[in-house]
Amino acid sequence: MGPQKTIDAEEIVVIGLGHVGLPLAAALAGAGHRVLGIDVDRDHLADIHAGSIRIHEPGLTDLIAEGLASGRLRTAAAIPASLCVRIYIVTVGTPVHEDKSCSLDALRDAVREIARRMRPDDLVILRSTVKPGVARSLVVPMLERTGKTFGFAVCPERIVEGQALRELHTIPQIIGAADPASALRAETLFASLGVDIVHVPDVESAEMVKLINNMARDLNFALTNEIAAICDTLALDASAVIHAAVHGYKRTDLPSVGLVGGPCLSKDTYIFQSAFAGTGFEPQLTWVARQINEAMPKRGAAAIAGLLTPRFHSAGMVRVALLGLAFKGRPATADVRGTMAVPFMSALQSRLPGAVFIGFDAEVRDGDIRALGVEPASSIEQAVDGAALTVILNNHERFDRLDLDALAGRMVAGGVIYDFWPCTDRAGPLAGAVDYVAYGEGSQLQNTVFARTDDGGQSQIGN
Fold first, then answer.
1. pTM summary value
2. Same domain, 198 and 279
3. Closest CA to 106 of 127, 90, 92, 95
4. Distance (Å, whole) CA 387 – CA 456
5. Where does 83-175 have alpha helices with state H?
6. Do residues 93 and 262 touch, judged by C-beta distance below 8 A?
7. Which letter does DSSP use for residue 412 in this model?
8. Contact call for residues 185 and 123 (beta carbons, < 8 A)
9. What is the share, in percent, of the chain residues with pLDDT greater than 90?
10. Strand-strand pairing, 150-154 and 173-177
11. Which UniProt keywords apply (predicted)?
12. Rounded to an integer, what distance in angstroms lies between the CA atom of residue 352 and that of residue 316?
């Protein structure tokens, strides 16, 4: 590495045009930069040019169209040998395998391609999520083997899917650079988006910041979901308890009850934990939080099976309507990576082998729904027709306005509507003797509360 120059209308290459890279490429082009987006998926590139992108982000389709029309935004499946690049931004995914180890294959491929093409004094920015130490132990050595001088910085993304374009222009950008010149070039680049810049002492600190932000969110969700499990055990209404606890009391900040998944929160704790292999230190709190959130689908499936089994004795087919297949409903997204629908279906089928799944999601493509093992429905009504069970899996705004009696009237008599998100305060029997049950609302023990007596025994109060 060596002295670097300040940015002046330099060519930028963004490698990986997924949920992180594509909004960034479009935003940089919109800010006046010349941007080449690289992605190995040629079908995805064709969709980008056809205006049929798979990523649900308000305003993104129009911004991409403007960038393509102006020539400031281009795409390719590989970096052209003749291109005079000055800045490379790596945004490829770092998913975890089934054993929860992090895959760096795409990152290695991207850095290997950069090493082949980069020229002296180019700046390389790592934006992918990795554990502390990956930049210095893997990425930098691969680039150093070229024998060329280069700048390097870690600039993690921290945007929320569904608000990417807004947050690219509002969320402060963290920069951890290998040297002051690289820090200046990275700052100049991201400052063109109008955001505040926060410098950290080194690349490891920047890698750590991203993980801290996501683990803090996972922890907060886990606390709420643990409260919900406690309230279920004590036959209390978790939503009412949480609302009362936070109302006018700023020192307690709790989100709503709900499933926690997605491509980041479901993996970042495992990426973080892997940083401590062989150190003799094992973080506890973040690990426990992840286990709490991952247990929710199984807890819900167990409760549902307990409700349905006495009602439907046949071992035959049980039609199950799933509402909300994307990993979250707010902000709306079409992303099914890390959706909790998958572990929920697995847990439910282990208890109800005859379950068949029909799903509705206003944002997710039918092909992506089928890939989950779910038959797509064109409407909520079509999904619930003839269902013995309807499950609300995410908090999309459409579910706030559900007419539960109308839905119950389409289901088989004695069915159950199970809500992981308590989207409504309606409880009890609906049309056709269908019950509405919400996670964390004390339904699992039929409103029986146990209180400890002075002699150490338990007395039953309520019924």
1. 0.89
2. no
3. 92
4. 45
5. 105-117, 134, 140-144, 164-168
6. no
7. P
8. yes
9. 84
10. antiparallel
11. NAD, Oxidoreductase
12. 9
Pairing of strands 11-15, 355-360: unpaired
Domain ends where: 146, 178, 203?
203
Q: What's the token pair of residue 415?
A: 């069915």
Give the tokens for residue 437. Answer: 């049950």
Q: How far is CA 445 from the centre of its chain?
A: 32
Q: What's the rounded Cα separation, in Å, for the pair 395 and 260?
A: 11
Contacts of 214 (CB under 8 A, 6+ apart): 264, 265, 268, 269
CATH classification at residue 67: 3.40.50.720
CB-CB contact of 430 with 417 (8 Å): yes
> pLDDT digits over 169-211, tens only?
999 999 999 999 999 999 999 999 999 999 999 999 999 999 9
The tokens for 169 are 């222009």
State both tokens at 316: 């035959």
Which amino acid belongs to residue 343? P
Nearest one of 163, 153, 151 to 126, comparing CA atoms: 153
- 8 A C-beta contact, residue 232 and residue 440: yes
Q: Which of 184, 203, 222 is the last residue of a domain?
A: 203
Q: Which domain holds residue 190?
A: 11-203
Q: Is 231 part of a structural domain of the chain? A: no
